[in-house]
Structures
1.
Amino acid sequence: MEKLLQQIQSLIKEIELFETNDTQAVEAFRIKYLGTKGVVKELMGEMKNVAMERKKEFGQILNEFKQIAESKYETIKLKTIEAVTISDSRIDLSLPGDPMPLGSRHPISLMKNKIITIFQRLGFAVAEGPEIEDDWHNFTALNLPAHHPARDMQDTFYVQQNPDWLLRTHTSNTQIREMQKNKPPIRVICPGRVYRNETISARSHCFFHQVEGLYIDEHVSFADLKQTLYFFAKEMYGQDVKIRFRPSYFPFTEPSAEMDISCTLCNSAGCSVCKKTGWLEILGCGMVHPHVLENCGIDSNKYTGFAFGMGVERPALLKYGINDIRLFSENDVRFLKQFTSAI
């Protein structure tokens, strides 16, 4: 028994002093001490020769020896793996790191944020709604019943029918949801992506972005609408821009109008973009139809309101002199990296 204990102590010192970075030496260590015919197995076989009253003592010592051998093996194995990894990677850790290139904002995001900022200065809050919408919020609540001819003005992507679910054709669905859940006064702008089943070309796409606005309160008038949009146009296109309103038709507003600005590309002289007229249409607007207010549970005898909506792509095209709307969605880094600063 004493001889076995001395042997174990000698082996422990031998294990503690052992160091290597060679994978073959590590494997040889495992076989020598922890293998099926290794030292640990051999010493366990000596248990039968130990006196009964000392078996417990010998077993504890032998178990500690096994744990020391296993711990040493794991340590030298880990060191060897790390050494091999560093050697194989052949990386000079003293070299400075590669610089990380800065990204840039998408031009649509830049323009949308600019529009939002202008209206936030007028007290408008930002509201968002779902892009997959039911027929009631997208059409019916906006004074477009099932067979209304104005529905033909918007070619729609339907997800399912009976009941109808679709990709929203405008962000007016968010206005309806805001009127349903909030009591006047309501003053919100609704930015987001919309979808229409149109042929993709340099001037149109099957999806694009809008920012729509809504203001409902007592005694809101068309004059309030005009002054709000005058402020927006001056802030967006400059103090020298000329503005005009033309009568128009939208089923959800009455009266309705379209707003034009003087062409900033040709200074109203006439060009291909403004179709030789010197004017560019930038948005549609009008007083919220009483039927829309009633559909959302708002008393149209007490409250009035105005709404407006504009695309984001057209102002961005004008701002940056881009002649193809498809560039916005092609994810060409050569195109996108040009937009590195805010508007």
2.
Amino acid sequence: MQSFTVIFLAVLLANVALRLWLSSRQARHVRAHRAQVPTEFAASIPLSAHQKAADYTLAKGRLGRADLLFTVALLLAWTVGGGLQALDDAWRLAGWNDLATGTAVLLSVFLITSVLELPFSIYRIFVLEARFGFNQTTPRTFIADLAKGALLALVLGIPLITLVLWLMQVTGESWWLWVWAAWTGFTLFLIWAYPMLIAPLFNRFEPLGDAATRQRIEALLAHCGFSSRGIFVMDGSRRSGHGNAYFTGFGRNKRIVFFDTLLNTLEPAQVEAVLAHELGHFRRRHVLKGMLLQFGLSLAALALLAWLIGTDWYFSGLGIETPSLHLALASFLLVTPVFGFFLQPVLAWLSRRHEFEADAFAVSQTDADSLVQALVRLYRDNASTLTPDPLHSAFYDSHPPAAIRIAHLKVQAAL
């Protein structure tokens, strides 16, 4: 067995073992605290809602573990099992040039993987989410979303893959810099185009109609010096009972979007507080920092791939008998998450730090009690567990645990 094969399998085993251990810790911790609402939430969240959140978390954990084991089996089939090599051999029978063959192979990998993982999506939406009263997606909507998503992936994916492989072929040893520039440009284009061209393909967006809420929001935006293309309400209730709000786009193409489910749940003052938190991300440049971090990590990854392509052990260690640029890229995209997983706690810590900073900004602009009330209501309505395992939360969670976040807000309000 190749040395790199042994390293890959060892890291994969450590990855799976750690994820299953963390998941089991989460399940034990949530189950142990299911019988009683934490003291700080006892007056605002009934026991029935707390137990629903616990059961929802446990159900998602079980599905997540099954999905993990299936994903690992599929990864092994693609790599050391010879799946990538077999797919490449099949496409080479068509007699196409390297560029067309490489594009077909990469698209086939993504398509086959998506189809094989589809049952998990169907189960999550139509069984798990429905069991807890969140699913509003009809089979017709699901199929329509699937078709539009596939078409969009082809329209955007074929030119991008072809461009990347062409750059890898013609730009010499510096190809990874050219590919990085192309990927960065494509990412920026997607961020710019998403609000106006992509999101409306899946959801309906209407200007915020509630006069009282709109007036509060416009006053807050003016006070913060934030300009956007509008304040919109998205028909999130067509698919789910979960509520949310977000910013999208950049430059003059920025939009503020509220799910209709969120507006139906919160009072105007609470909506204003949620928006102030989102504005905190903008004012603290969290979106920009996140983009720069993403671009930096992608540059490092491409530089690593450029080095790996020059080795024999990388290809043979992953079951590839006929090395090529497109198989190097395909295998790298499949294998990188296995090694990159160990960066997860650092990225989660950084995200939680940004959430605290956005909360602090919100408290400086609006009433802290309104933000606390909004968060508690969202925890309740979204069935978010109030008692996550501390280690599991530290490893995965992009937001601070509920109790810690509420306590931190109260401290900020007292300053």
3.
Amino acid sequence: MHLPASPGWLLVALCAATGAYCLLRMRSDVEEQRRAAGGEALMGFGMAAMAVPAAVFTPPRWAWPVYAVVFGAAALHALWAARTSAHHRHHLVGTAAMVYMALAMAASPGHGGSGVAPVTGALLLYFTGYVLLTGVRLVPVGAGGTAVRLGDRPELARACRLSMGIAMVAMLLTM
């Protein structure tokens, strides 16, 4: 991506921490947490890898098509799961966005485009709306009285999804 060093490293840290928490959620006793956590961990770590500032590490040209294949496979999985889950439809959009960004970087590494491509604009609108809606859903509506394991806390899962949505907006803005 075309981020300056400081914001790039902050984005790397945010996405890597989110991916690590999602790995923790894969051990949850709650089936829905486990089902979503693997794809979210892949997204978090993949976004972290793509956000490493180019001034520090420029991936070889073959890396971008590899990213596209990995996230293309994740998109196929999300497409299959989207039949029964609205959240997996969001995963489908996210993985498709990752494929799009990887292909854009493969076509033009190190160079920003002039203007906003229609696909980039549509993705920016989607993820901006997603961030706003998810942020509103984080506002607490009541206090819970039961102790819940760290990997089973739905508000932390929503916070991770929010942070990945914000990171996606930041990455798309650099396209």
